[in-house]
Amino acid sequence: MNKPIKFQCVTDCSSICCGGATILTLKEIVKLFKFFPITLGFRKIQPFNAEHRVYLDDISIKYRGFYITGDFIGGNRLKTRCRLLKNSLCTIHNQLKPLQCRIIPFSVTFPEVLQDLVIVDKKGGAFRECKGFYADAPLIWDGQFIDKSLKENFDILKEYLMFQRDIVEKIFISLEGNSLFKKFIQTGDGFFEVPILPEFVDEICSITGILDRVEFLRAQKSLFVKELTFRGMKNSLFIDALNTIEQLRI
Ligand code: SF4
Ligand code: SF4
Fold this sequence. Notes:
The protein has 9 helices and 11 strands. By secondary structure, it is an alpha+beta fold. It has one domain (5-196). The chain is globular. One iron/sulfur cluster (SF4) is lined by residues 14, 18, 22, 82, 84-85, 90, 92, 97-98, 101.
């Protein structure tokens, strides 16, 4: 039996959900590339049941028996605060805000009807201290989304994941010789993150509708430089990303 979910974000909070990196989709890159340095991350997902497996067939890559999601990542994973926070408030709104941020606390890696499992998992981990699940909060899910905008954003995000699956799979397969790729496949789960590879930049610009490739690369270069160092530590992924942009000779 489903456990209804009551939730409302607490104003001025952002303590847990606005970490250094947020999930973006290919279709969102065109409006967000001036805000975030963008990389690409892969994660294995275990189907919870047959229904979840059918759902993953639509949104994820299948590789050697694994289900793998590929997401574009905006921001610096080493940081604990999103670069768009100001005084604990997000500085981008409405259509500009990433879809993943608009469906918090849910996750599009599970179908709508299984979102209670997502919440159980999150409450046991990263969202343990989230104050949004209070008794008088509005009911937003009861086997399906009750909140209309939540439902719309969830459906769009799913559609965008399906849209980007082919190119994400192509990039993933192109990494087969990479030692981190091999480690990722051999280990139980984990996460594998790479820069946008030079050979895919033109295709990504064309698919996303970025008309000026140089503007895109210059904006990304500037963001990678700004975000390179945190607490005296250089983000090695961002060094790779800068080398990648260098190869493109803008
Ligand atoms: S989801 Fe939770 S942690 Fe994030 S802003 Fe809302 S109340 Fe705060
Ligand atoms: S874009 Fe806004 S809502 Fe999303 S993680 Fe950053 S600060 Fe939070």
